[in-house]
Amino acid sequence: MNTTTSSIEGPPTASRWERFRDSYLLYSFKRDLIAQISLLVFVLMVVAAVLAPWLAPMNPYDLAQIDILASELPPFWISGSEDAYVLGTDAQGRDMLSTILYGARVSLIIGFGAVALQAILGVSFGLLAGYLGGRIDAFLMRLADIQLSFSTLMVAIVVGALVKAIFGGATFSAYAVPLLVLIIGLAEWPQYARTVRASVLAEKNKEYVDAARTMGLSSRRIMFRHILPNTLSPIFVISTVQVANAIISEAALSFLGLGMPETHPSLGSLIKSGFDYLQSGSWWITLMPGAVLVLLVLVINLLGDWLRDVLNPRLYKG
Fold first, then answer.
1. Hey, which bits of the chain come out as E strands?
2. Cα torsion at 32, 35, 36, 40 (round to 10°)?
3. Which biological process annotations from GO are given for this protein (predicted)?
4. Rounded CA separation 129/148 (Å)
5. Which of 24, 74, 85, 267 could pair covalently with 293 via S-S, beta carbons 3.0-4.6 A apart?
6. What domains, with CATH codes, occur in the chain?
7. What gap in Å lies between CA 231 and CA 229, rounded to an integer?
8. Is the distance from CB of 93 to CB of 159 less than 8 angstroms?
């Protein structure tokens, strides 16, 4: 005798793309013109920086391509310019468009690298402090309070000056990018730690965490696999702000002579290199990279403001 079994199938599970398409995040983005323009400008700037070796008319690191006789040429709309240099040249004869593209790439690398380091340290310390509590919480939060009592720029200046004095200027210039990532990253981790700790304190006594403990899961698994995903919203918001802050910190350190050397341009070092020529009429050497820096920080902050509003549950309308 043949028996036929029928299986009861539940409703089809929506794919990730379908969930994203129907999400409030995309809905809000489509209705926010400022966020759309900011994201477009930011993506264009990142793509241009990444493709700098192919988009730039010249390589500012190649001494063979630098013509010192073509120094301080004005941009194309000012008389005395040359067609080969659209945005003019700096005091060393380097093409300003090329140096800005390469400099933006260095600034973005430092900004994203420093924020990645901040997030790794801050999220780890925040999880430990909030979940374990006790002496570990007291020690980590007092350490964060001590560091927050100093300004970020002052901490970066002190650490940068010490590194430069101990290892020498030549070594600092050779490893300027990883050193600046380390310096800026170590100066800002408390922002993440305090935010994550507050979120963990609100999550660790909920039912799903108690169920995970009852199942015998380790503390590390509970922290990173169960609690951490529920604290990602404030982390994303902080990250957008911190990227802008890291780029500004790099520019400030470079302007003070504790950042990128002039031979390895970033937006900050380009502003510094042209500052001495601002009064002599070669204003474009400073103002061009300065305008790019302001625009980059502005669009990042606008995206951060939009993301903060979207991820704020008090403003969520469903």
1. none
2. 170
3. transmembrane transport
4. 17
5. 267
6. 31-311 (1.10.3720.10)
7. 5
8. no
